[in-house]
């Protein structure tokens, strides 16, 4: 038998224990960290301020401008065992949200969609207040340049009923009577508008109608015309309307001052008269002697003869006898003699001169002053205008005038 083989010593356990301890004490991040997220076509990762990617972290991507996420495809990656999960290309070119139209809206099947690749087709339906024009297409297409095709006006506004006419007024239609339009109302002069001044074509269930009914034009009345003192109105009426006039007249003995008529006018939808009414004023007449008696007026040189509203007779009274001054007459050729005509004229002049001298002497003899005396033959009432009688009392004046009249009337 040979000598027994020497035994191999066992490996040292201490280094293994140290290695195991180091593995156990190693931080988890250090064990499963991922590198920078992978590149995805037409997209960028949303990282913020992160610079490390530990185990199980998720990174989401955002499509570049002009690209849209394809519905149903994932847009994120996960770090697993120090590796990123697989991700397919999910960003693609697309038209923007379909054009918003005033007269139509997208059908519900397209309203929630945001991805419209080239060739996509969307459909519209008319908004309330519009009706479908079937001669035009209600579809839009995403073109190669990723722009939507130009829409036709395939929905037309509905029309409100004809508003009709306004009695004593006007209906103004600026453009038309289609949905959304407005009309206005006004009344003729002399009428007041009661109701809405305008109306709009608005929705009513599935149709359109006017928001307000036609107003009413009510006639405007003026107040009762003003009355005037000592006057009255020709043919008065119960009511007075625009441009209707009233005419005034005065009672007997009064004069109308101002315009003889006024008319009804309108201001701020209220009736009023065009101006103030006229006035009736009494006539200013002088005091006259009562009655209409025949009177005689004697004229004395140097005074102004007084006038009276009675029928008068002027008498030139001589001292004893009243005679007329003879007129000069012409003698036809071949008849009479020139001497006889001249003698007649001379005699008349002498007689007239004597009469005048006698009258003057009597007046100065009785009163010492000149004047005019008008006496009423029937009542012996006298009115003197010369200065010599101005300061006498009424009774004395009547007596003296009566005396003078009696002197003048002696035949």
TrEMBL record:
<keyword id="KW-0768">Sushi</keyword>
<feature type="domain" description="Sushi">
    <location>
        <begin position="32"/>
        <end position="91"/>
    </location>
</feature>
<feature type="signal peptide">
    <location>
        <begin position="1"/>
        <end position="32"/>
    </location>
</feature>
<keyword id="KW-1133">Transmembrane helix</keyword>
<feature type="domain" description="Sushi">
    <location>
        <begin position="93"/>
        <end position="157"/>
    </location>
</feature>
<keyword id="KW-0325">Glycoprotein</keyword>
<dbReference type="InterPro" id="IPR000436">
    <property type="entry name" value="Sushi_SCR_CCP_dom"/>
</dbReference>
<keyword id="KW-0472">Membrane</keyword>
<feature type="region of interest" description="Disordered">
    <location>
        <begin position="274"/>
        <end position="342"/>
    </location>
</feature>
<feature type="domain" description="Sushi">
    <location>
        <begin position="220"/>
        <end position="282"/>
    </location>
</feature>
<feature type="transmembrane region" description="Helical">
    <location>
        <begin position="345"/>
        <end position="365"/>
    </location>
</feature>
<protein>
    <submittedName>
        <fullName>CD55 molecule (Cromer blood group)</fullName>
    </submittedName>
</protein>
<keyword id="KW-1015">Disulfide bond</keyword>
<feature type="domain" description="Sushi">
    <location>
        <begin position="158"/>
        <end position="219"/>
    </location>
</feature>
<dbReference type="Pfam" id="PF00084">
    <property type="entry name" value="Sushi"/>
</dbReference>
<keyword id="KW-0677">Repeat</keyword>
<feature type="compositionally biased region" description="Polar residues">
    <location>
        <begin position="282"/>
        <end position="332"/>
    </location>
</feature>
<keyword id="KW-0812">Transmembrane</keyword>
<dbReference type="InterPro" id="IPR051277">
    <property type="entry name" value="SEZ6_CSMD_C4BPB_Regulators"/>
</dbReference>
<keyword id="KW-0732">Signal</keyword>
<dbReference type="InterPro" id="IPR035976">
    <property type="entry name" value="Sushi/SCR/CCP_sf"/>
</dbReference>
């Amino acid at each position: 038998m040979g000598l027994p083989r020497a035994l191999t010593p066992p490996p040292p356990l201490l280094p293994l224990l140290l290695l195991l301890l180091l593995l156990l004490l190693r931080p988890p991040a250090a064990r499963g960290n991922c590198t920078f997220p992978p590149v995805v076509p037409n997209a960028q990762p949303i990282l913020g301020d992160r610079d490390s990617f530990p185990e199980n972290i998720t990174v989401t991507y955002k499509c570049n401008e002009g690209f849209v996420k394809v519905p149903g495809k994932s847009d994120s990656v996960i770090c697993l065992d120090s590796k990123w999960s697989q991700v397919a290309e999910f960003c693609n070119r697309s038209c923007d949200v379909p054009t918003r139209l005033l007269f139509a809206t997208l059908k519900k099947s397209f309203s929630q969609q945001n991805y419209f690749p080239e060739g996509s087709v969307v459909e519209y339906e008319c908004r309330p207040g519009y009706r479908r024009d079937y001669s035009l297409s209600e579809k839009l297409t995403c073109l190669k340049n990723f722009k939507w095709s130009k829409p036709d006006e395939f929905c037309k506004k509905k029309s409100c009923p004809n508003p009709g006419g306004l009695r004593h007024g006007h209906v103004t239609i600026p453009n038309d009577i289609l949905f959304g339009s407005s009309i206005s109302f006004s009344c003729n002069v002399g009428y007041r508008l009661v109701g809405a001044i305008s109306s709009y074509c608005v929705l009513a269930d599935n149709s359109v109608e006017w928001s307000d009914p036609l107003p009413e034009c009510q006639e405007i009345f003026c107040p009762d015309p003003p009355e005037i003192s000592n006057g009255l109105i020709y043919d008065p009426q119960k009511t007075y309307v625009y441009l209707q006039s009233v005419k005034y007249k005065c009672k007997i003995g009064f004069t109308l001052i101002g315009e003889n008529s006024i008319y009804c006018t309108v201001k701020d939808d209220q009736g009023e008269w065009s101006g103030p009414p006229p006035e009736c004023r009494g006539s200013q007449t002088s005091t006259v002697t009562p009655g209409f008696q025949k009177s005689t007026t004697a004229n004395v040189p140097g005074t102004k003869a007084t006038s009276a509203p009675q029928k008068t007779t002027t008498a030139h009274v001589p001292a004893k006898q009243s005679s007329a001054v003879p007129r000069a007459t012409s003698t036809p050729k071949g008849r009479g003699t020139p001497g006889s005509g001249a003698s007649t004229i001379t005699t008349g002049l002498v007689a007239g001169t004597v009469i005048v001298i006698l009258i003057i002497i009597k007046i100065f003899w009785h009163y010492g002053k000149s004047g005019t005396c008008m006496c009423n033959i029937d009542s012996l009432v006298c009115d003197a205008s010369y200065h010599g009688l101005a300061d006498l009392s009424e009774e004395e004046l009547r007596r003296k005038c009566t005396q003078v009249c009696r002197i003048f009337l002696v035949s």
